[in-house]
């Protein structure tokens, strides 16, 4: 997969807000810069919206270009930024190890492959910051077609499952199958496919299920092309996306990396302070529905955004190594030497400790009314349903947290359980049935019945 390359010369920053989606040729890197002109190449994934604070949103806001404009003014030189858009992290790693991308963003499993390839090829890289994360693993989901009879992991035995080998979604699939007592190598027929190809395969019936990362499961579910059968948060293992930089670039251009990390932190603050506006910006840039972007990046979304490198994320990264080794995708990886938070600590100064100690917001039910610039939160799913029932024609999207994992999901796509007067939503049928089995009198009901009971 090759990328589209566009060039924005600072201070001519007007072009910085343009976010083309097509994928074409590659550009150069800071290596080819002369003394008065420095080119910085950023690899990002526009539709992997968990990386948006280091990619799509950051680019649309123009914060990095602004930082470089100020830096160039102080230094008496011009900075040129090239943004390269990819579908997954693998081609970003390929371009980084070829010296053609300076800074990239990708998920946790691709980050480890990035570390391994960089060391192997003599182009070492380092994890320098985090973009978005979910401490339970809710960023990855296994879905099947809407009319499929598959309802649990055990139903996947002998079936064709599409995923991107080496991705965080593949890691979720492997671990989930192992916990269900299914050999991930022999128990299913794994199809190694790009997310878009896998989505098409699911729709065409050539794949029985799809295990993918943000935002594909939510997008397909929102479009009515899929339904969830496994919520990655059931693993209760952190998953995240982060920023990786070439070691030689970081040493040669520390002020540029510093500018990038400052800009990323500011983009993070913008997303957290203006979640609806941020979702609209990302939607406009990517072509994704804003309702899907908000599912992941909203005020109570599946993803929490913060640049600090949290210890629990590093610990999760260490546990991921064994999954990649068993798949023969890497050998041993020295995670401690790969993680290097010195740059983000310097960039954020005294605010770093506060960001490090920030905790995800509590799960909440939310409604996005049509035409509104902000959402409305409710104390319980039942209160949300009551509101939706009274304003059916005025709802843009309604979100509810899974009763056991807290993973946000579309209210009309959730599996609903009535337990006396309580109405409880679940992402997947298996978790709903597990709850019902443990609570006498509880029963699975339709969304329409849930609305009626709430009213």
From TrEMBL:
Transmembrane segments: none annotated. It comes from the Bacteria. The keyword Ligase does not apply. Keywords: Signal. Residues 81-278 form the SsuA/THI5-like domain. Residues 1-30 form the signal peptide. SUPFAM superfamilies: NosL/MerB-like, Periplasmic binding protein-like II. The keyword Signal applies. This is ABC transporter substrate-binding protein.
